[in-house]
Structures
1.
Amino acid sequence: MALISKAQGEQCSIVTMYKVINDGWSVGLNPDNKQKRTGANKGTWEPWMAKKNPYAIGSGITYSLAAILGQGKFADPAAVGWVNTWINQSIVIAKHIGYTPYDGFGQQRGNTDWMYGWWDGGKNISGIPRSKVSDSLQCIWDNFKKYEKISGKQGLFANQKDNWNPTDTFLITSDTDKKLIDFCDNLDSQIKEAEAAPEVYIRSVNDFLIRLVNDGGLVPISLKKQTAGVSIEKKENNIHPIPGGKIDVVKGHLIAPTAYAKFDVVDSKGGGNKIDFISNSFKFTAEIQVGSTGNRYHIEQRMSSKVTSKAEVKDHNKKDIGGGFIAADAQAGNVPVAKFEELITRYSKSGTYGSNIGTTGKVLDGNIKYWSDLHDEVSKHRFKEMGKVNMGSTSILGESYDTKNYFELLSQMDKAKNDVELDAVVANVSSSYAMKKNRKIKKGEFSGKIMNKLRNLRFLKAMINADEKDDLCMLLTAIYYQAAKMKMKDTDLQAPFIKLASM
């Protein structure tokens, strides 16, 4: 279990912003300064942030954070990265609204013009007076869910708010708060008619939110933990029109080290004698550039459930000191399942995302040749600038097989109804396993994992097709943008937000 939960991280962030901006509490000083009276905390990354909190943080901040986390968690050395994250986020947002954070001892006069919202916090946020709390942004999503129910046109965002709007917290002026409440009230009356398509509803909402952001009265924030060695910056997303209306000129390629989607079957992975693949992921690193903005990221496609898998994207940040890249501590996001399946289906040109994949006990029925041929095809392909994907080997418990026999054996293992039947199958294919005195192999979720490895192959096929048509850059860009909830066309439905993250 993580030391700091997602909810605690978001609450601590917005409360720290309130204490820094509204109450004027000090963001602290450089603790390594010998005099401990100069060397202000600028909010940019400094080496001391890996092990120390700022010196002389305003007591209003420390008391509030300790009250939320509990004194034990707040004092835990492992929480240092989080405390610096919340303070540095507050410094960046304070500068965004034109307020200069105090970097001395105690307090200065704060900026009291703002209200503070936490999407999951409702009307009450411990650490912020009720009069300074707003929940007006949540009404948009609440109304949209009502609209879907009444209209019978459900599923636009798969009931996931973040697929539309990744905002975690927000600042809003009292005048803008009233405008948003009035807007929501009008929407509520319109919903009862439910005549417009959901897309029309969302576009009208997004246009209104963009106006509020551009007018300076709304600051919707998506939060990411600071990566050690990399400063926090802000990036405005889905706020300004895209030149030409869509992204169509990009660069993108896979980069070394070699990507992997290993197929070796092993036992006792993580203990428990469960049959498993040595890796259940397809993982690679990519670099894209849209205009003057470049992003390096890695993606991992792994099992999410028996019937699907998810694509997790994590940024690679350029370090402030010493050069080189480091994987971000926080995910950029997950590609929405429906969008990911649509992408892979479009590029793979081999049926839908789930084509040729059966149910448990029938995963490979009638399709052994199809999947063995596809495995051979993708394992031979050399991607431009990177080379081959590391596919591991078609081995089962240390015994190697040609591709067709390998998939036939996977089919037999899938068909095993219980551990006893699986034991018989594995003993027949692995002489070393058969000679074991105490055989206790377990099937676990192996059928679902076979399904996931087949999805890995289809993802690879999609990438190969894109690579051969010099369109890999667009596929890589689409994956990143969809994970980060960024528009690729002005007509896309993602809401405006400001991302606070190491960049």
2.
Amino acid sequence: MNNTEKTFFDEMFGHRQAGAPGQSQSQGQNSGQSQSSDVINPDQTGDLCRPPYETFNAWFCDEDLKRLNAKATEAETMFRRTGITFNVYGDDAAAERLIPFDIIPRIISAQEWSRLARGIDQRVRAINAFLHDIYHRQEILKAGRVPTHLIAQNDAFEPSMIGMSPPGNVYTHIVGTDIVRTGDNEFYVLEDNARTPSGVSYMLENRETMMQMFPELFSRNRVRTVSDYPRLLRRSLASVAPPGCDDRPTVGVLTPGIFNSAYFEHSFLADQMGVELVEGHDLRVMDGKIKMRTTTGYKALDVIYRRIDDSYLDPLTFRPDSMLGVPGIMDVYRAGNVTIANAPGTGVADDKAIYSYMPDIVEFYTGETAILKNVPTWRCSEPDSLQYVLEHLSELVVKEVHGSGGYGMLVGPAASRKELSLFEAKLRAKPSNYIAQPTLSLSTVPILTKKGLAPRHVDLRPFVLVSKDKIDIIPGGLTRVALKPGSLVVNSSQGGGTKDTWVLQE
């Protein structure tokens, strides 16, 4: 786990020599150094292909590289035709940008996935129990397992949810748990996305594209399906409908609109589920319910899969200047006449300061030791931790507690003296706003280049659906990949790409 390691773990070929030490987590910046960017030739290297990749590797060795590169170009054309795009805030030139797609799949064995799924299930159950507790009896605070001030002073804590129990007691209906790998059996949770996790549309389209281009691969490899996600999502949302609604609850996806970075995904999921895509101005409070405008009049909406932030949901409860939400929706919600997924106030569970307590949270609510490990974390709000971080700033990754997308962070090993000095001043001014973590030697998965296979860093976001009576973990998820040699940037907004993720059957 330290930045002096001379090898890194490649998921296709095992341990390989590194051209430079591992630097940081997936949201990190370029180190400016190449980490084993040499092309891998499976026919000529002495590397032992790992079992999950053996069938794929045999196929790859028989393929013509020019044909595969032509297929990669074809994939880009397919994505462009489908309209799979995202926007980058603050960059007018980056509107409607395509996320690069690499055709070499990431392959996970059934045994590896089984362990990951158990750990994710355990973590999601604990998160839901934690959220119910902090908005009700607050037993974990009384027990001293989590400091009270981390909740009371947390911007994501929502006082209007105190005493409120959502239908089915489900707070996080859709969860995206970001996971990184450092070795054969070493997985770490990087963060928990409990608000409005995105990326599932790319998971689905990546698989569809691969199946169209390489059907023979799926006849040779027994890959578990991800295509039933929209059906499972629809069923999961319907299961937590408020009491008293029809047997077939009416579900809608609430979007901020076309200028949101994930608008494609909002419209895609609504279409795939066969439900309405609505904006705030399409909805109003009528007869104690939320109703949407249709061509035949207003119709009650039972479940709202919202893709807008808490603060914009209701101008009467949160930001009065919001034009994105629905005035009075929180009153309807508190009255039990509509379900909002994910529930307001869930962001406190994926706050990076709370993240450091997740092993304690898991143990407190499940009575079990956490299966999936956290990345070791220093809380800069604690004087001793702050002192350590300041003394080792050049070796650490420092993140904003409420930050996301890789913004507002420092990657110590890649930072200049000036950047370190400026960040030190920020830390001293507001230490409670930051946490710090060691650098990790992240695993790599080969990508296809013009000259052949080359290793690149990856992370993984599996998607979890929580119903009233069960938890569904989609076998796969979104693999994000750094596309440049030596880069650790996997975020799409900062130049990363995606891969299809295969989970093999037993």
3.
Amino acid sequence: MLKHSKPSKARSLYSHTVRTRTLIIFLTCILSIIFLSSCSLINFEELDISSNVSENQMYFNENNVRLYFSIEPDKTVLKSLLSLRKNDSVIDSEISWTGSSCSIQPKEGFKKNTAYRVSINGRCRTHDERYYNIKFERSFIYGSDNDLFLLISIKEPKTDFTAGNTASPSENSALELNFNRSVDIADFENNFSVTPFIQLKKEYEENDTKIIIKPQTDWSVNTYFTWSIKNLKSADGYELAEEASSTFCAKEDLIQCKLVSVNAAEISNIINLEYTLKNDLELSNQTPAENAIAMNDSIAFKFNKDIDFPSFKSQLSIIPAVRGSFAQDKNTILFIPESSWKINTEYTVFISGSIKDTNGIPMHDDEYFSFKTANNFLSVKNIALKDKNTTVLTENPDSVTVSDFDTLFAEITFSDKINSKNLTKIEQAVSLEAVFPLFLKTPKLKEIKWSDSNRKVTLKYEGFSFSDTDDYIYRLKINSSPSLIVSESGEYMEDDTWTVFITR
């Protein structure tokens, strides 16, 4: 009987190695077959795109943009991925093909000095059913650097009142824009704007390359204006390379309006406004004795800036009320009383803080002061009644009896020189009338004579009546009306003065 012996360890190991090698060979064969069978479907060729517009090219002036593909793309798919932009806005374009290249141009045609961008972005299919992810872009300005339509300089209006200016010079009141090409005026009118809104007038100079813009009235003070230009064309059809805008404050005034001083003023020529400033008047509630002006003086109000004239006139008040007129001399305004200030009268002047300067900035703080006139009343120093032989019959009588004369000279001496304009009014101011009895006739004035100093006047009267038994009463009266007898300094009499005398 045969016995089966156990295989040795070496024999088992050999058998396992043979099986492993067989499996490797089999798998290698399978992979080879797969590789060889699919070799015709794998292609590592890249899709290259080039253009007649190079990278980083600023200007381009050919009739169309051409794109060259290393592999012919599916035209329908590519059209959906391609865009043409004008100033960042997509526009309609025309695409034509020649083999694997195409040309692109706007349906409206290229516009000089306008920014364009051609781009392809997305997954593209080629004619042989391959797919490529494409991201391609070219940007340019159509034309050349010689065609560029530019805003080359800007001059904005500026008046800084903090620098001491009191008015806006005309040369600083305009916005000035300078271009390198003539502007299409109609297009500028439509595409230029200023905010906040203000009525403007425009002047076109230097073959329409310079535009001067001014307000119909004036720029508002301390107001910021913003101007802008969009889509502007030149006269020959070029578009402005860039939109332009800026903000400016034409008139800046941060100085507070203040009343600097108040003075008594003597006006020598009202027509040409010639005047002399005299004593200062304190802007406070001083006692009137500390503020005094002459009767014929005006008042000069001086400010640190030019004042709006109507504003001042409406905001000034004087108590008691005084009629008068106003005159302006730059930053000084004068009040000219219609007639002389009243003697021994206290006046209070009130200046409202609502007064504005010419830029519309208010003063804010009220101001006031009081004063009295420095003058005294005009007085009659002496009255002398003389006969024809210049014999003094009486002097400064209240009531006296005189007799035996047919001509009477009334000699009146005043405390000050009488204004030459008022010398002729003495006939109206001085009257001699018969008082009693009623049948008495009033004496007639025959002559008036003034002394060289205009302080003394002599009036000659005739036609007196006498009686041995009865008293005839006459009265010499001097009227105190300020419109009649006035001194050179404007003084007038406080009360009427009279003398009564009796003839017998």
